[in-house]
Amino acid sequence: MDFVQPTLTTWFEIQTKDHDMTARVLAAAARAFAEPLPPTSGFVADLRDYLVGFVQGWHHQKEERAVFPRLAQRAAQAEGGLVAAMVTEHAQARELVSRFDAAAKAYIDGARDRIGELVETFRAYASFDERHRRKESDVLYPLANRLFSPEDAEDVLEEIAEMERDLGWGTRERYWNLAAEIVSRVELKDLSWGLKPEVLAAILNTLPIQLTFVDQDDRVRYFSHERGAQIVDRSRGVIGKEVQRCHPQKSFSLVEEILGDFKAGRRELVEFWFDMGPRKIHVRYWPVRDEGGKYLGCLETVQDVTAIQKLTGQNRLLDPVG
């Protein structure tokens, strides 16, 4: 996971990215504090560094030194009151973070009995910050973006760059990478990771499609509907076998060709269909890849499409059952 986006070229993009990143960090921390086991000292130390060092010491300072004063000059009197309100909220946020900081320092130093205070102060801050960020993202930033001249926008960007130089080059990237680390410790890699294995198995076995998975070494590793109605027969005897050996000799070379094309990225789907008595069976093969494109194996899906072929007209969810 990487928050760094070198293509960000305007103050609006940078500040908006800060907000998006902070929202994910706070959501991740909220999940960590809701776990049965308390968070590690290292996690709390990183969260403290992010909230104290980045949100208060960097993000809010960019607004107070570069964005707010210029917006107050450009805005009408009524709109200028929005800037004053945001400055007041920054002061309230500093007080909330100060309370969290004290509890976090104690917790990191070994005072695990402060966990209740740590969680309470975090939740108070997170709730406040969510409302504050929404006001800035939905109202203040768009207002400033509309009122600032191109010269204003360039000046704000330069002031942000000057602040970063004062704090040390790479400040932004360091904190964005810290945020990525915090989130990666908590955030589910995939929503399926949050399911119990028996629930995930039940979901796969409920699908009206029969699945078979062959790994990157061409060995059968999984098939669904083992204990239910199968379209094509599968038994545990095939698990671990080379998939080529599970097909007739005459189709051996075709299986090799399909798998070779999947591994080389030459094909993303192979399909065929045939009749099984009165039923029409649709078989498809898909390459399975990770987020980086690495080949993980091949998925076979087998579906009885007889009833689907007969569909006509419409039958929407709220239509009466005929």
From TrEMBL:
<feature type="domain" description="Hemerythrin-like">
    <location>
        <begin position="14"/>
        <end position="144"/>
    </location>
</feature>
<dbReference type="InterPro" id="IPR035965">
    <property type="entry name" value="PAS-like_dom_sf"/>
</dbReference>
<dbReference type="InterPro" id="IPR012312">
    <property type="entry name" value="Hemerythrin-like"/>
</dbReference>
<dbReference type="Pfam" id="PF13596">
    <property type="entry name" value="PAS_10"/>
</dbReference>
<protein>
    <recommendedName>
        <fullName>Hemerythrin-like domain-containing protein</fullName>
    </recommendedName>
</protein>
<dbReference type="Pfam" id="PF01814">
    <property type="entry name" value="Hemerythrin"/>
</dbReference>
